[in-house]
Amino acid sequence: MPFSCKWILSVLNKAVTKTVDSLNAFELADAGNTVYSWWQYQFCDVFIEAIKPCFSGENLDRTHAQDTLWVCLETGLRLLHPFMPFVTEELWQRLPSPKGCEREASIMICEYPSPIEEWTDEKVEAEMEMVMATVKTIRRLRAAESMERQRNEKLHAFALCGNITTLEIMQSHELEIRTLASLSSFEVILKGEDRASQAGSAVVETVNENLKVYLKVDGAAIDPEAEREKMRKKIEEIQNQKEKLEKSMGVSWYEEKVPAHIKEENARKLEKLLQEVDLFQES
Predict the structure, then answer these.
(1) Mean pLDDT by 10 residues, the chain (283 residues)
(2) CA 157, CA 215: separation in Å to the nearest integer?
């Protein structure tokens, strides 16, 4: 099964678990946000784009992608049904039935989704997190003002990896990165091979402590001072976010009145912001 299919089933399973738990606790806003986030940011933004290469020919990957797409649509509509009953009913009725299988006459009388333990794959999710961090970094570089005229062009990028583990992950998911970042090619290099200096005209950004991404922009005019100024502004923006979060966490009633899951989320956000500041300063 393609990597993207394993990933979407894993995050769908987590969305199902969180939605069911939230509904059982009568936390309707949390349940609705969970369903919305899965549909918008994981299914539509990532999965549908990532599986496009699977449909380039008749092969096993195409079959897996089609089957996974159907499962996601059917399960996702049932998950969304309590929040949007009429729209989901209409869409569900238009969804083809699996060959040789019968289903209920209406989505209203279908069983609500429940978690399927076999779908969860933490390793796949961790790898996709690195893939998406790389893709978002490349997109930021493409959106740079100095590259305005190349925004719609497919460019070449390469990743400079600090260790073998990162190298293997990047090599394994070259197709997903190239597809999601709209690249003509994507090369993976291990630190020490010293091929970054041969990149020609390129812009660079740090993804994490073991990964840097270079985007080649041969023929484009790169202003080093402008790039440094953008980096300074980015660091300042992150610093402001960090200070704002620290201020909200420092109020006298924070520990007593703020729910535990919000405190955990804020702690994770703060840690991530601190890491981002360190990484950008190193760059």
Answers:
(1) 95 96 94 95 95 85 92 96 95 86 87 94 96 92 62 80 93 94 90 60 82 77 60 78 86 83 83 72 59
(2) 4
